[in-house]
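I am still getting used to backbone structure tokens and would like to learn alongside you. To get us started, please write out a protein record for me. Once you have written the record down, we can walk along the chain together.
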Amino acid sequence: MESKPGRYGTEDLFSRALFHPGYWKTLARLLRWDRTQVTLEDSTLRFSGYAFEPASIFPSGRVTRDRVQEINLASYPSQLRLTSGEILFVPQVPEAREALIRFMDMHDLPAQRRSSVWGALLEPFLDTSEDQENIDRQFAWLAKVGLQREEVDRTRREIGIAMIAYNFGTRLWEWALLGMYDALRAQRARLSRQGFGDFYGRAMRIASLDPVLTDTPALTGTVSDTLHSVLLEWVPREKAGKIKDFSKEFAARSEKIEALRKSLIDQLTAAYSEPHRRYHNLRHLESCVNELGGAWSRAIRLEELRWALLFHDAVYDPRRQDNEARSAAWALHVMDELGRSGDEKARVEGLILATAHSRKPRTTDEALIMDIDLAILGADPTIFDEYERNIRAEYEWVPEDIYRRERTALLKSFLDRERIYQTSLYRRRLEAPARANLQRALSR
């Protein structure tokens, strides 16, 4: 069956999938879950239990820096694109992503986003539908990147039965995005060892066509939006059976979230609007939220980072040395009321205390929040100069000679570091302008 305008060309596969032996074979074998583990050993990434046998690191192997072309943290799961053209997958579990990001920062490896050709190829097997215009536009895009309609049809029909079992037979019902990882899992379950080895190579060839994306999508939103996002995840749900009507349960929870959001945003706004704050104010908080919106793919635990940023300067008295500790205490008090776990509270406390910049980060999330907080150092010179004036205004009670001496020591301490920024993302963006700004400030 050839594809026609407005049709994928795979519609008949759905009507006969249940009668195809490959469907049931795939479904039975898909019960075997991927058990890949990734750890950082010295300066290399160690894979164990890797799922796909033709891979260069199957079942256990190491990846050194010289083998890596780029890393895509925004894909699911994260991808290492090797110089050989092979793509390796890193599970989304926190331990594996922590190892990957540490490896990335250790070697200043480039992060790169690409459009997924496999994502486009697998669209007919999503739990959704597209209109004629979008389907035709997709065929045109695939042809532009190097896959003509004949090859698109052939590939979709080759993997179709396995993908139907993968997404619908397992009741996964993914509706947003499927990718090469999903195709490999489905085909590994369906094919023989030799057959999958052949498919693996062809899958990598198709993935080599993925075009680089020049724009980076950001999670935009206000401070209030950020708070609401965390509360949506963290406000406890009613125990099953307490409210039998789902709509009433949803309405009651939404009302509770909104009331808590309003109360907290009023308290945070009042705190960050104190008259003595000239830099550590709402403008700084909004800037930090925007920075995280552009760096979200690096986060291990995004909601914890959001929460820590919201509270990191909630208590600020330039005459005291314990502002971060007091800010963390406030954040943890609210987390107690939300019933969050001890592990979560310990990590959030660590994130907020890290913004004192008095120690090295213990986790990649701590490294990220530290860099976000110091992004101002690499800002445009006019913005940096305004920052310097505002910091002086916050310490107006300090005599000029003492302020100059202490400020000089602080700025010089940043310049004396081997690296100002902890993450490869911020080093690539802001290390050079930050050093220029700091040197200029010292020369004054």
In short: The chain has 18 helices and six strands. The chain has two domains: 1-215, 223-443. The longest strand covers residues 37-41. The first helix runs from residue 11 to 16.
